[in-house]
Specification:
The structure is a single chain. The chain has 396 residues and is α/β, with parallel strands linked by helices. It folds into 2 domains: 132 residues, no CATH class; 200 residues. The protein is 40% helix and 11% strand. The chain contains 13 helices and 8 strands. Strands 1, 2, 3, 4, 5, 6, 7 and 8 form an 8-stranded mixed β-sheet that branches. Strand 7, helix 12 and strand 8 form a beta-alpha-beta unit. Helix 2 crosses helix 5, helix 5 packs antiparallel against helix 13 and helix 11 runs parallel beside helix 12. The radius of gyration is 20 Å and the shape is globular. The two termini are 28 Å apart. About 1% of the residues have low confidence.
Length: 396
């Protein structure tokens, strides 16, 4: 259903300005779709109407002034700053996008609800929903592309990115990729991870021992998953940043982001490990990105940024992203933002369904990842608007 909502793939034979203009319709087809309208109405809210300039909500004056928003955005959205770089339709889409995110954040942020700091998905809050509401949420989010598994659009890709995660997620995503490889040419293989520490509760180390014994972080999980599911051998990891240990602060990171504060030193490093096939041929890499959002751990966007730096993809190459289906909308928008918008890559995202038993698709989980996709779509629109405004994509 997601591919039907988003339409055909975005044109790669366009310059950066045209690519930026095209993503507005791409995003609008999903965010302002009938399923999204039905989902918000289930919770007593509506999608923002066309042509309305959203007012700043009471008690939320900082929404458009946070560190991930450019300084010009609030004025454009509120109608107090010049916006000639956008067509009336693009401006309306951007304004409605921001308003839709504010509504969804109030309703669906189970990771942030009642939390004093950053909270992982496994520790999200639980809602007091009726069984009827839980059924409706599942039906609608299935229409939005978060439930039913998807398959690749093409039979051949230049590069395939297997995205990271926790617990058994890296192994399952790698297994799904290996099954896809039986019918599709996946090209070079890249397993994208981070230095996120394994969680103590529920105990992650014991849960991953079958495929990544002695793992200490997500990078180790991706290494273990790569060799567990593919006929690959991994070389010893090396530091892209030039350091030699993860328990020291990386000076390259400090030059980009300033003093670390409470950021773990391990989150400031970039590492890679070469992957080789049975005959010693190069097959790809396992990557561990640093964080661009201290003190929080690196996210999907950070791993995409490291990948483009080390893989040096060429314009118009075809890239497949492999994840769990619940993350496909969110990570598809992130892929378009990080890979299509600045580099002109053709991006396709696929995932396995609930039958793979990565996690139970509770209503809270589905709503939280709907919000993740909405936020990712907003970041994409803001970066696209920044390009049209003659700015570089934010990359945040």
């Amino acid at each position: 259903m997601l591919k039907e909502l988003l339409g055909s793939s975005l044109p790669v034979d366009a310059d950066s300005g045209e690519r930026s203009a095209r993503v507005f319709d791409f995003v609008a087809r999903w965010v302002f779709s009938e399923p999204m309208r039905n989902l918000l109405e289930e919770f007593g809210e509506t999608l923002p109407a066309r042509g309305a300039i959203p007012e700043a909500p009471e008690g939320d004056g900082e929404f458009l002034t946070g560190k991930e928003f450019p300084s010009w955005l609030a004025g454009v959205v509120r109608g107090t700053a010049a916006h000639a770089f956008l067509t009336p339709e693009q401006l309306d889409t951007l304004r409605r996008m921001v308003a839709a995110e504010q509504v969804a954040a109030e309703l669906f942020d189970f990771r942030g609800r009642g939390a004093k700091g950053y909270r992982e998905r496994h520790h999200a809050a639980v809602a007091d929903f009726s069984e009827d509401r839980r059924k409706i949420v599942r039906e609608i989010t299935a229409q939005l592309g978060l439930v039913d598994p998807s398959v690749p659009r093409y039979t051949r890709y230049d590069k395939t990115l297997i995205l990271g995660g926790g617990y058994n997620s890296p192994q399952l995503r790698s297994k799904y990729a290996s099954q896809l490889a039986e019918r599709h040419n996946l090209g070079e293989l890249y397993f994208l991870g981070s230095p996120r520490f394994l969680l103590a509760e529920p105990p992650e180390a014991a849960a991953v021992e079958y495929y990544a014994p002695a793992a200490r972080d997500e990078f180790d999980l991706m290494l273990g998953a790569a060799v567990h599911e593919f006929p690959l051998k991994a070389a010893n990891p090396v530091f892209v940043c030039g350091c030699s240990r993860t328990d020291v602060l990386c000076p390259n990171w400090v030059s980009l982001f300033g003093e670390p504060g409470d950021t773990p030193f391990a989150y400031t490093h970039e590492r890679i490990a070469d992957l080789h096939g049975p005959e010693g041929e190069a097959r790809g890499l396992v990557l561990s990105a640093h964080t661009s959002q201290p003190p929080n751990r690196p996210d999907t966007s950070d791993t995409f940024a490291l990948w483009t730096k080390v893989a040096e993809p060429r314009h118009a190459e075809r890239v497949l992203i492999v994840t769990a289906q619940v993350f496909v909308p969110f990570q598809a928008f992130d892929g378009v933002r990080r890979l299509y918008l600045p580099h002109g890559l053709e991006v396709d995202a696929v995932g396995f369904g609930e039958g793979w038993k990565e996690r139970t698709l509770t209503a809270e989980y589905l709503l939280q990842e709907t919000l993740s996709a909405i936020r990712s779509a907003r970041r994409l629109l803001v970066d696209a608007a920044g390009v049209l405004r003659d700015e570089e994509p934010l990359g945040g």
